[in-house]
Amino acid sequence: MQQASDFLAESEALERLITPLQVADFTRPTGFKAWTFETIMRHLHFWNHMANLALTAPDDFQAALKPAVAGMMAGKTLPEIEVNHFPETDLALVSLWQTGFRDVAAAYQQADPSDRVAWVGPSMSARSSITARQMETWAHGQAIADELGIVRAEDDRIRNIVVLGVNTFGWSFTVRGAVVPEAKPALRLIAPSGETWEYGDADSSERVTGMAHEFAQVVTQTRNVADTALTVEGEIATEWMRNAQCFAGAAATPPLPGERHTKSAG
Question: Pick from 73, 98, 99, 107: CA 20 to 30 A from residue 17's CA?
């Protein structure tokens, strides 16, 4: 499954980003909810582990999910829940994550893309499950890169995240209790390779144009649309880009303009 290979490549890109870090770096807070590097790596490892169980050991997945959901219902934060499962810190945690992402990639590379796997909410296809893992790896990796003052080199595998953003157009409205517009805005995006990716009715007056990675940043809420060079035309497109959310869970408030950005190196 190509999406599993893309997840692996995304994880390896994050691995290269954090390899030079020292133990003390993992306590550095990021612009994402002030989560530290360590909090982010634990979060990624926990849900990679859960995705692996969901595919390869469904009963074990349900057993692990039950206390996690109970913790959420009791008002615990995700970091509080995740540290109970994986208390390891800094480099020991990174080692777990490295083994874990390779394990889950190998499992999904052998899966039928249409296989159904359980999750916190509704079940999803194996293809959607591993795409979600790539999306989270890329999005949370952005927070680390921002704190380090590094502008990442993008790759066309980001198309999986773009497609996820397109497919969750309706969700971005539904999660806020709003009526879903009948027609999606047209998208015309430039891929990292320079290729043009188009979605929707090209003749629509509602449209979003610009760089694919900036569209991905907006739908993953790593950037406010005002901090990108995207051109947004029409009321529906404007509302979508204002509140876009390609991930599950409760309605999340996008960052304010200027709130999430690449820090000056040094």
Answer: 107
What number is the average pLDDT over the span 34-61? 97
Q: What is the architecture of the domain spanning 2-153?
A: Up-down Bundle (1.20)
User: pLDDT at position 265, please?
Assistant: 63
Cβ(104)–Cβ(51) under 8 Å?
A: yes
**Helices in the chain by DSSP H: which ranges?**
2-18, 37-56, 58-73, 78-85, 90-109, 126-148, 159-167, 169-174, 212-219, 235-243
Task: Please tell me the pTM assigned to this model.
Answer: 0.96
**pLDDT value at residue 103:** 98
234 sits in the region (left: phi over 0; alpha: psi -120 to 50; else beta) called left
Q: Which numeric CATH code is attached to 159-243?
A: 3.30.1050
CB contact at 8 A, 233 and 210: no
